[in-house]
Amino acid sequence: MMRMFVGLFAVLLFGQTALAEVGEDGLHKKEWFTVTFKDVAEDIQDAKSQGKRLAMIFEQRGCIYCRQLHEGPLSDPEVAEFIKSNFVVIQYNLFGDEEVTDFDGTALPEKEMAKRWGVVFTPTILFMPEKVPEGDNAGRASVATMPGAFGKGTTLDMFTWVKEKGYESDEHFQKYHARRIQERQKSQ
């Protein structure tokens, strides 16, 4: 009852729900996350067929930073709409047992695949390339990694940088982000 009251208060005060929905697995959820069989090569192809990119987010039960990401940037209408329009987002549980299939056909539980891909922090978002690289795994093949919960500007800039293929340019993400901050300040 208290949680419902707090949620209603947040809606009245801020105009949007501040509490993130939590699934049976204890992970925060967004209705626009995609549920798949967690075959990375197939998921990249599915995203490509929709004209989108694949982003894989690792979270864990009770993660306060995951909650901050869900209640902050992922609940912001501008950020959520940009992501939904340009990315297929698949959620992984850092300590989960669901089977995941990597590019090379290796199938492991989520928690073992997280180790294989070098994911040690939640939330961590891995941005996948448009084409599956031969003989590589998704951790090494990712074109960018976003480790942690950042604010609206950083989150939006990272997704935009990946969409624009900034990783193929000479402009490092940090320089891109600094430029975007200056542009936003000038337009205010």
Automatic annotation (TrEMBL):
Coiled coil: none annotated. It comes from the Bacteria. Pfam families: Thioredoxin_2. Residues 47-131 form the Thioredoxin-like fold domain. InterPro entries: SoxW, Thioredoxin-like_fold, Thioredoxin-like_sf. Residues 1-20 form the signal peptide. The keyword Acyltransferase does not apply. Keywords: Signal. This is Thioredoxin family protein.
